[in-house]
Amino acid sequence: MSLSKEQIAQRIAKEVKNGYYVNLGIGIPTLVANFVRNDIEVEFQSENGVLGMGPFPYEGEEDPDLINAGKQTITALPGASFFDSATSFSMIRGQHVDLTILGAMEVAQNGDIANWKIPGKMVKGMGGAMDLVASAENIIVAMMHTNRAGESKLLKKCGLPLTGVNCVKKIVTNLAVLEIVDGKFKLLEKAPGVSIEDIKAATEGDLIVEGDIPEMNL
After folding, report:
1. Which of 32, 46, 120, 202 could form a disulfide bond with 50, CB atoms 3.0-4.6 angstroms apart?
2. Could you tell me the pTM of the whole model?
3. Which CATH fold topology does 5-174 show?
């Protein structure tokens, strides 16, 4: 079976370490805060000016004035702080964020990422994605392995306008966990019930498969 968006976020949450400052992008990444272990301390940052985001609020407990960069209502943990966008991007550009988790429309095997614009469609702006990928040293992408037409989103070369070049380190999709190694996708884990052949068929880019590939532990 392929993973749901929630399960992708659950697997990525295992990459979050104690003491990390983590920026969550729009889409699947926003779900990661719901799955981080209770025995570690993590500070989630949103580029609109929040440090100390918690999980999404329960229905009926939403505060319309408390939102993330994707305009979703959020919760704030004890000790959370709020600030302007200039301060927020000083944190990002100053490389004070330990881990950046982003969504993507396409990722190339050399680590390029396209996640902000589809030509011919209305776009409100690139947001903070370009600052994030230019400044972050540890970027994990959360995405579906293929688009709605069944075409691979893990490519030899991105066809959409790039957000950043040579910057992605690891990708978690509904089919697999992969990392960028020597300009190729290296398969680290497969989703439960998903075969190596399924992953190969869904990956346009060059795929390295070495040894026995374990199933994801969610």
Report:
1. 46
2. 0.91
3. Glutaconate Coenzyme A-transferase (3.40.1080)
